[in-house]
């Protein structure tokens, strides 16, 4: 077997990417409803798309985050686990008939969900319910075979598991 100068025992899962139709609506959802922080973004003028990277920050990182330079934010983004990348292809927000295959309906069934860990599933679900019709519920707490996990959907229909274990 060929040897390589890399150690897979220290690899970490960094991020996953989903495409979004309207970044304003999606950023509102992930930041103000789910409580994530936009930690880095980058526009690609030639190819007409933008990447938005969001994550949950601990108190220490949150306290110093706004003082970081753009290069420091970029480095931080790609060296930490648990990042969600939203990719927006410019112009999709202006097309009323446009939607992405989110994996949870035909055509394109296949992608399952992302998940967030919360401190208290029951209270988190009550908080989410307070947002009214801004939240879609493919599966409420207590439904289905896995009763202690709720599934909500983001504005593009991507499913998000919510649980405290």
Structure description:
The protein is of the alpha/beta class. It folds into 2 domains: 11-92, 2,3-Dihydroxybiphenyl 1,2-Dioxygenase, domain 1; 112-164, Signal recognition particle alu RNA binding heterodimer, srp9/1. It is built from 4 helices and 8 strands. The chain has helices spanning 23-33, 59-65, 70-78, 121-129; strands spanning 15-20, 37-44, 49-55, 83-89, 113-117, 136-139, 150-153, 159-163. The radius of gyration is 18 Å and the shape is globular. InterPro entries: Glyas_Bleomycin-R_OHBP_Dase (IPR029068), Glyas_Fos-R_dOase_dom (IPR004360), Glyoxalase_1 (IPR004361), Glyoxalase_1_CS (IPR018146), VOC_core (IPR037523). This is lactoylglutathione lyase.
Give a short overview.
With 165 residues, the chain is an alpha/beta fold. It is 22% helix and 28% strand.
CATH superfamily of the largest domain: 2,3-Dihydroxybiphenyl 1,2-Dioxygenase, domain 1
How does the helix and strand content classify structurally?
alpha/beta
For the record, the CATH architecture of the largest domain stands as Roll
What name is given to the CATH topology of the largest domain? 2,3-Dihydroxybiphenyl 1,2-Dioxygenase, domain 1
- Report the radius of gyration as a whole number of Å: 18 Å
Give the neighbour order of strands across the main sheet: 1-4-3-2
Enzyme class: lyase
Cofactor: Zn(2+)
Binding site for Zn(2+): 85, 113
Pfam family, one: Glyoxalase
């Amino acid at each position: 077997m060929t040897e390589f100068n890399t150690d897979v025992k220290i690899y970490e899962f960094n991020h996953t990417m989903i495409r979004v139709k309207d970044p304003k609506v999606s950023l509102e959802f992930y930041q103000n409803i789910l409580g994530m922080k936009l930690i880095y973004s980058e526009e690609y003028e030639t190819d007409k798309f933008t990447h938005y990277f969001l994550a949950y920050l601990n108190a220490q990182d949150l306290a110093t985050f706004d003082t970081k330079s753009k290069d420091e934010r970029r480095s931080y983004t790609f060296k930490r686990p648990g990042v969600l990348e939203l990719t927006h292809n410019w112009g999709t927000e202006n097309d009323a008939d446009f939607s992405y295959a989110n994996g949870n309906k035909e055509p394109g069934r296949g992608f399952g969900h992302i998940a967030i860990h919360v401190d208290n599933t029951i209270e988190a679900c009550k908080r989410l319910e307070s947002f009214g019709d801004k939240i879609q519920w493919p599966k409420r707490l207590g439904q289905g075979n896995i009763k202690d996990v709720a599934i909500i959907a983001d504005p593009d229909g991507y499913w998000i598991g919510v649980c405290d274990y």
